[in-house]
Amino acid sequence: MAGTAVRGRLTWQVATVTAVRPETTSVRTIEFDIPDWAGHQAGQHVDIRLTADDGYVAERSYSIASAPGEPLQLTVERLEDGEVSPYLTEELRPGDEIEIRGPIGGYFIWDSDDARTPVLLVAGGSGVVPFRSMLRHRARIGSAAPVRLLYSARSLPDVIYRTELDMPGDGAEIVYTLTRQQPPGWAGHSGRVDAALLTEVAWPEDRQPLAFVCGPTAFVEIVAGELVSLGYPPDHVKTERYGGVGAP
Amino acid sequence: MTERLYGPDDSALDGNAIGGLLHEIFSTEMTTAEATCGHCGNTAQVAEAVVYVKAPGTVMRCRACTSVLAVVVRKQEMNCVDMSGVAALQAG
Amino acid sequence: MSPLSRGFHGRRRASDVDASRVPPGQYVTTDFPVLSAGPTPHTPLENWTFSIKQGGQTTKSWNWQEIRDLPAEDVTADIHCVTKWSKLDTMWQAVSLDTLLAQVGHEARFVLAFCDGGYTTNLPLADVTGGQAWLAYGYDSSPLQPEHGGPARLLVPHLYFWKSAKWVRGLELLAADEPGFWERYGYNNYGDPWREQRYAGD
Fold it and tell me: Which among A41, A77, A38 is positioned nearest to B31, based on CA atoms?
């Protein structure tokens, strides 16, 4: 895959927190300074490593929220029974250090200004994070590729990057579906992403679109399956599963 | 993406989740490498394998037939890798 | 050691723990972590059986009702996972493997437990008899949940918990030892937490 293989050792580096920003009541974006950061591609992720004072070590992976060229940002959702996410979303503060290795991934990446290939991004909950990187990258390079983000969230207050997504830029469309609660007068979609919603929102397969699906495992399985049923060739549907996190 | 024979399993991840581990082992990005299952012959990118990480080791299974492709056990800073379930691996 | 992460403490630990109950290298948790090497099977009870196999043949088999009709015990045990968490005073409802093995004539010295989903683990016969091992179908007075191995799992608390095979469907009685799943991939053939026998060669 052109330009993505990072050969040689992938080493752990010390990253210093430079800023934290709440996105929703349970989601926070953290910005880091890493002296030898080599840059990344939109859609890639990092592994982080935390060491407690008794030597206990925890490792996790997070999608990169910032665009290539911007300082590294990660967006983390606090999980109810989480071991790491409560620390990252509530305790971690500017000046703190954690270990990070990356960027990682050559499969779930998008880097194209091919105006003929429309892109469909389908996000379940915090699965929207790598798509923020893709959308910001698209705007930064002035890509003419048409892009549509279908974003499934529990409620409007749970939508991450809401202000930013309300101004997506030329040729980018954002479609929300709110699964548990809708504000009064909501004119958008409600309920889970299903065949009917995808039929309405997805690019027709004769335009040879590329699709990315990211979020909880069950969400990704259902959506990817539906896209293939709609005629998307399986190798045009890229998936990234976040496991059994809270379903949108 | 390959056809699923089994229902969704909420705890399962995919090969993306072990991109860092695989890079550590092979000294290169491996999620786009194509792996052929030794049991059913299905070929798919490593990113699309079914991966279990909440275990005494990391287990990669074929998405088509669920047979074990590879297991990585971390033993004192070393990765012990068993790839006997992979019939062929093509990396770029 | 890696740089410390200020303020990070990891899992909820139990406090006031009697250290003599904690094997070397373990920490006590109040959670019950779910670990798995594969998808969670969902075998309907009407199709479920537990079998003893010898020489490739099934010599004895019980269906779900027959297992439930056997005398069962309330077992309280400390359990120790090779991934370093221990959980004390776990409570199970279980049938002793002595009860099951007593119904089969054999001269086996080893067993290989086999499970839905293909998982296996091996044990010396001496470690699954004499009141040391059970077929457990209840946890904390409720039916054992699928994520924890239900409808039934092995319970062999004196060894690392990977030996307490989830979704167990039977035992193969063997004259010679045969490594199971984790034993093949680098874990210790026996797995005594008190001698910290985690990996092969420990």
Answer: A41
* Residue found by looking up tokens 């990092």 in the block: A46
Given this model, what pLDDT does residue A3 score?
41
Tens of pLDDT, residues C25-52: 999 999 899 999 999 999 999 999 999 9
- The CATH topology of domain C23-32+49-195 is Sulfite Oxidase; Chain A, domain 2 (3.90.420)
Q: Does A5 touch chain B (CB under 8 A)?
A: yes
Tens-digit pLDDT profile for chain B (92 aa)? 433 334 446 789 999 999 999 999 999 999 999 999 999 999 999 999 999 999 999 999 999 999 999 999 999 889 999 999 999 999 87
Task: Return the H-helix or E-strand segment holding C93.
Answer: strand C85-96
Which tokens in the block code for residue A247?
Answer: 């379903």
Any A CB within 8 A of B15 CB: yes
Is the residue at B56 inside a domain?
yes
Query: Which tokens sit at A146?
Result: 């048409």
User: What value of ipTM does the predicted structure carry?
Assistant: 0.93
The two tokens of residue A33 are 């300074």
B6: nearest CA in chain C? C39
- B7 located within any domain: no
User: Cβ neighbours of residue C55 under 8 Å, at least 6 residues apart?
Assistant: none
Catalogue all structural domains in chain A, each as residue range(s) with its CATH number: 13-104 (2.40.30.10), 119-241 (3.40.50.80)
Whether C111 and C172 have beta carbons less than 8 Å apart is answered as: yes
Q: What is the DSSP string of B69-81?
A: EEEEEEETTEEEE
Residues 31-70 of A with CB under 8 A from C: 49-53, 55-58
Cβ neighbours of residue C4 closer than 8 Å, sequence gap 6 or more: A51, A52, A53
Query: Which amino acid, residue A102?
Result: G
- List, as one string, the DSSP characters of A51-95: E-TTS-EEEEEEEB-SPTTSPPEEEEEPPTT-SSHHIIIII--TT
| Record: contact C3-A58, CB cut-off 8 A | no
C3 close to A (CB below 8 A) = yes
How many domains does chain B divide into? Answer: 1
